[in-house]
Amino acid sequence: MSAVLDHPANQPSGGIISPERDGKYTVLAKTNSNGEVDGDLLEVSMGPHHPSTHGVFRMDVVLDGERIVKLKPVCGYLHRNHEKIAENVTYLGSIPYTDRLDYMCSMTNNWAYALSVEMLAGLCAPERAQYIRVITAEFTRLINHVCLVGFLAQDMGALGTPLMYAFREREKILDLFEALSGSRMMCNYMRFGGCRVDLSSGWIEEANHIVDRFPAFLDEYENLLTGNEILIARTQGVGVLKPDLAISASVTGPMLRACGVNYDIRKVDNYGIYDRFEFKIPLGSHGDVYDRYMVRLLEMRESLKILKCALRDIPEGPIMDPNAKIRNFKPKPGEAYGRIEGPKGELGFYLISDGGPNPYRYRVRPPSLINLTILEDMCLGQTVADSVAILGSVDIVLGEVDR
Amino acid sequence: MLGEGIIKGMAETAKNFFGSYTSAHRLTTVQYPEERIPPKQNARNFPFLVFDNDEPESGLRCVACKICEKECPPQCIYIVMERDEKGKPKKHPKVFDIDISVCMSCQICVEVCPFEAIKMDTEFELSDADRYERLLLTKDRLSKPNTYYHKIHSVEASEVDFRLAEEKAKAEEKARAKAAASSKSTVPAQPAAA
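Above: the input entities. Below: the structure tokens describing the complete assembly.
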């Protein structure tokens, strides 16, 4: 709590404050009593249809020359009433809607929702289903991180090449998902108490093949980007986020770990069967855009380790809890909060049941939106071009931000 | 050396460019529509209704129970049950419409159907200039034979056929047992009447 109060942006100084690399803050421009900025400042509306904003997102930036002195994120352009719709359809009926939250990672969304309903209804997925969930979730993490790095590079002007390489690899994993669930992106795969269909024959071999080939691609990707002087100049020391601010703003996921905070729900909460796998949590130290980029690249390598073990150890057996019901599913009254480590951060679903066929209250804890709340703190004092890189490194999907 | 990273990256791009002439895994583009990837076994797009024995009307498995209509998350299914002159419901849909401009291909209708009557199609080239009439699939456009289902999802369709045959055999067994029981109960009644 004290970290919030100590933050200079919360002091009644009447100025707009910018964080410096060494942790000191400087006042860049004065505001009048109405909070309007004085002087020769330029207010620019970036977005909502801007290629760098990853969808329909708008930033109202106030510029002093090329420096940002104020930034207001404006979201809600993709609001689809997800939570209210979910309160009016059956528990089963919201699973396809959760696919459309963060449309890059539908499998993890499914899992988070299925987990919270399982907690509510007292179901437990059998062993094989748990393995399938881990495998699909880690593949989803690969998809998300590889694309994020591609998009980040594209935001910084590397038009095409890195993103196309990322998409080439993503395509292979999407083919796997299609063979498994029938759909490439809107998988709608997990069910309360298990998974919808079993792995088809040959799926594990195909998955193993992709996992074996992936490190070579990551090496290629790192050769292409990591040492690149332009990328280093554009990312190192840009958009620094301090660990205390990150914690008090409840930032999660790779964003938080890039600040050096060791917090991964796979380790902390041990949901599913993650305690059976050996993997490390990559941590950054500066909390700048470069660290966020590197943390994601390293996380992909750790995901590959988990995948290798899971694909090796997956047992035979049922994939659905025998107590699970498809029709007339009515959990007893109560509340539950299920959370998982999504590729973007802590993804949680909070449900209240009144014993009816649809939830009384349904709430999503979207990592994208909560990570986005500190955008201004990271952008102050940076240039407009940097703000694009910073936004890219936050890793947002507007479907989840606006819901 | 300044610029080393850039040169290294360029070398990687060059490797990919020239590699695309020799190795297949670097050349991923499929020249659609001339070339096509065969659809996956589980692939799904929009629902269709299965009918048996080449009888699109009487062979429909659908009994108009309206479970799918109720469960459909975007509410894109519309069913009216067929009734005879007295208003008694027949186990047959009079109207079965799916608005595929609303459908989100979630296949929940398939999962909840107790009669294996609705399944997912793999056809995806459905674009049309008329967004109202042509995208509202009526019963005649939705009905497809079981042989078609076997063609697109062979494994799943065989499982379904097996399950249905099993159920049918069980039902016949039950009916026979019932008939036998009722005939047995009438046998001792006859001498008593005589």
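Note for the figure: Residues 29 and 35 of chain B are 10 Å apart (CA to CA).
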